Amino acid sequence: MRPSQRTRILDAAIRVTERDGITALTLESAAEEAGVTKGGLMYHFRTRDELLLAIQRHLTDAWEAQLVAELGKPLAQASPQEALEAYVRLGVHGAVSKADLAFMVESVATPALAEPWDDLIARWAPPPTSTDPHDIDRLLAQLAVDGLWLWRATSMIPLSEPVKQALHDRLLKLVAARDADAG
């Protein structure tokens, strides 16, 4: 299926950011990268802010699709532990995009831009509501995955597959600590 012009523009804007940084992303640069006129782009996105919000949603939709694929079933059919396990697996072994990081950072100061990311995290790895040690272990696993993702997005030093696998295994043990305690 051929992507829509809107999707082509969003993907082009992400490529501009990945290649040149977020400050280089303008309506003009996105239009040029997508092979459309600025007027064609503005049919979909009247301002840079509209484009940025659409990109945030586009990126989080892509993350959601990857998480669902990793989970192997709809999120509504999964336990919180299964969802967090999928989050850990994707966070350790999934692709890392510098553009994702740039757009996440861009969203920090603007609640409307942060909302898609906050909604994604709230569904897949909600913060604990108690100080139960298992809930805190799950939060530690999530924070470790997020930190690993950030490190991979900003570091030029790759982790070996054995190290990534060891991290993966240890984080899943942390997520499942209560089950091990009960056994």
Automatic annotation (TrEMBL):
Keywords, alphabetical: DNA-binding, Transcription, Transcription regulation
PROSITE patterns: HTH_TETR_2
Highest taxon of the lineage: Bacteria
DNA-binding region: 26-45
GO molecular function: DNA-binding transcription factor activity; transcription cis-regulatory region binding
Xref: Pfam families: TetR_C_28, TetR_N
HTH tetR-type domain span: 3-63
PANTHER family from the UniProt entry: HTH-TYPE TRANSCRIPTIONAL REGULATOR BETI, HTH-TYPE TRANSCRIPTIONAL REGULATOR RUTR
Protein name: AcrR family transcriptional regulator
Lineage start: Bacteria, Bacillati, Actinomycetota, Actinomycetes, Streptosporangiales
